[in-house]
Design a protein that fits this description.
This protein has about 550 residues and is mainly beta. The protein has three domains: about 210 residues, Jelly Rolls (Sandwich), CATH 2.60.120.200; about 180 residues, no CATH class; about 110 residues, Immunoglobulin-like. About 10% of the residues lie in helices and about 30% in strands. A hairpin with a 2-residue loop joins strand 16 and strand 17.
């Protein structure tokens, strides 16, 4: 599939458009232009713009001319093409003028014209009207036209849609011809402007903007581009693109992160520079020595209370070596739902492990998970209990039995993560892909790889026997059609426990598909039985 677009945003107002200045900043450079002489205009203009600040201004003076911009070899010979133009007229033309023409060499296949009454017409190879729209074009405002042409001398067909609301997805009028028109044959030249028929004097001025051409389907309205995170390497996103519920990202602003998985059971994603890994339960009495640390021990580990004055360590190690601490509110509703426990938590967490041990001994219970006694801790640290800890110890000793029971309850709550009486899990499907933003050069031919994970009845599932296809759509509102899908292949990565399979597609000049310069939404389609998931896998930027 090839899609060509140009927004004219890369030019300078008042500058005549050429093949050399039409590409950078605007989109796909034109293969040909026709600037009228005698003071006529084919120029970048800020007088009117459908989007952004510039458009293409077309006009002739008393000298006849044919102002247009065109793609030829960039699209090549096609049996069917789809087109898009945003147009702005201040008055109906004094003579019928073309706004788009598809040709085979120098022979017209089909053209669109605006008549003196302000109605759009689709003309065949002989210049005769295939149909004329009922409604008229709106004046002094932007509107959009889209349609397609099938080139054939006997079974040609055309369609034209007019959108009086320029970015609407609902056409104000749609006309489709019978598949019996003379549209010459395969097309290879595509002119936007007055690119066919007789040269005209005193044409315009009128403006065109955000023009497009595709051999894969309708382009749809222009939508502001999705911001690509600042970190460019494939598979990485910038933390600046995300918010964290308990404070700012603790690392450098440009430190990359990679999404690996989200823990539905805990709802917490831990982080470290370069990677994100899912939080997971920890065996009783042990603390996980990975990028993430959190309390998930069984009641036997109740003695492992952190000396952090009301904070539980759940975040990963800061890139600089410091520990990011999250306030106790991370404990969530499982604790706050227990009104009696809520006021006790700060006191319990303020006490040292040694103090907790004394409390439990006075209540007839001992900490089974504490690796060493309070005396050993005191000797190793060689520091006395702070005044705050001593005060907490006195308070706890006075209410030993109550507090001991609450400690055991708290440990059990943390370990088991109990839910309210009514609770549902996060909705999910059995198919998952790793979403990312990828950038490649238009000169490059390389595989676009999408990591895939699948499950069937709760068990891991190998999808590599399924047919996998890709589609690269230039607009977020464009849904892939049957002609947009191209073949993909599978690969297996046994070292990746989260995404053990990968679907990939060869993209570029020597690949399965070559979308050209632009930003594309990546779709992946997996034909399984009975499911046929179509998943959005991210964004591809070709520059």
């Amino acid at each position: 599939m090839t899609t060509l677009v140009n927004s004219f945003e890369g030019g300078t107002t008042g500058t005549t458009i050429s093949t050399g200045n039409s590409g950078p900043g605007s989109g796909n450079a034109f293969d040909a232009v026709s600037a009228p002489g005698g003071g006529g205009t084919l120029a970048f203009s800020n007088a009117e713009a459908a989007h952004g600040s510039l458009a293409c201004d077309l006009a002739t003076t008393g000298t006849t001319g044919t102002p247009y911009v065109a793609w030829t070899t960039s699209m090549g010979s096609q049996a069917q093409v789809w087109f898009r133009l945003y147009l702005y007229f201040t008055a109906n033309p004094s003579a019928t003028q073309r706004v788009f023409a598809a040709l085979q060499g120098g022979t017209a296949c089909a053209t669109i014209a605006v008549g003196t009454s302000g109605k759009l017409q689709f003309l065949n190879a002989a210049g005769s009207a295939i149909f004329t729209q009922t409604g008229t074009i709106p004046l002094n405002q932007w509107f959009r036209i889209e349609g397609f042409i099938i080139g054939s001398a006997t079974v040609g067909q055309v369609e034209l849609k007019r959108f009086n609301s320029p970015d609407s997805t609902v056409a104000s009028e749609t006309n489709t011809s019978a598949a019996s028109q003379n549209t010459t044959g395969a097309m290879d030249t595509y002119r936007f402007g007055h690119g066919a028929g007789s040269a005209l004097a005193n044409l315009g001025p009128w403006w065109q903007d955000d023009i497009g051409l595709s051999n894969g389907g309708y382009l749809g309205p222009v939508i502001p581009p999705v911001a690509v995170p600042a970190v460019a390497p494939p598979g990485f996103l910038s933390p600046a693109a995300f918010s964290f519920p308990h404070g700012p990202w603790p690392g450098p602003a440009n430190s990359p992160v990679t999404f690996r998985a989200v823990s539905a059971s805990h709802g917490v994603m831990t982080r470290s520079t370069g990677k994100l890994v899912p939080a997971s339960p920890v065996p009783a009495g042990k603390l996980k020595k990975s990028a993430a640390k959190k309390l998930a021990a069984a009641p036997s580990a109740a003695g492992k209370l952190p000396r952090s004055a009301g904070k539980i360590l759940v975040a990963a190690t800061h890139p600089a070596g410091a520990l990011a601490k999250v306030p106790r509110k991370l404990l969530g509703s499982t604790v706050t739902a227990k009104g009696a426990l809520r006021k006790t938590i700060p006191r319990l967490l303020a006490a040292t492990a040694a103090t907790a041990a004394k409390v439990l001994r006075s209540a007839g219970k001992r900490l089974t998970a504490t690796p060493r006694s309070a005396a050993t801790l005191a000797r190793s640290t060689a520091k006395p209990l702070s005044a705050r800890a001593a005060a907490a110890a006195g308070l706890i000793r006075g209410r030993a039995k109550t507090l001991a029971a609450r400690v055991a309850t708290l440990a059990r709550l943390i370990a088991q993560s109990p839910a309210p009486s009514f609770k549902i899990g996060i909705p999910q499907t059995e198919w998952h892909v790793s979403i990312t933003a990828i950038g490649i050069s238009q000169l490059s031919t390389q595989y676009i790889l999408i990591p895939v994970a699948a499950a069937r009845n709760g068990n891991a599932y190998n999808p590599t026997a399924d047919t996998v296809q890709f589609a690269f759509m230039p607009q977020a509102t464009q849904v892939p059609g049957s002609g947009n899908w191209v073949a993909g292949v599978w690969e297996t990565d046994s070292s990746n426990l989260i995404y053990p399979y990968g679907a990939k597609c060869l993209v570029g000049p020597a690949g399965i598909t070559n979308p050209g310069i632009g930003t594309y939404v990546i779709y992946i389609k997996i034909t399984d039985n009975p499911e046929i998931p179509v998943l959005i896998a991210g964004q591809l930027q070709i520059s």
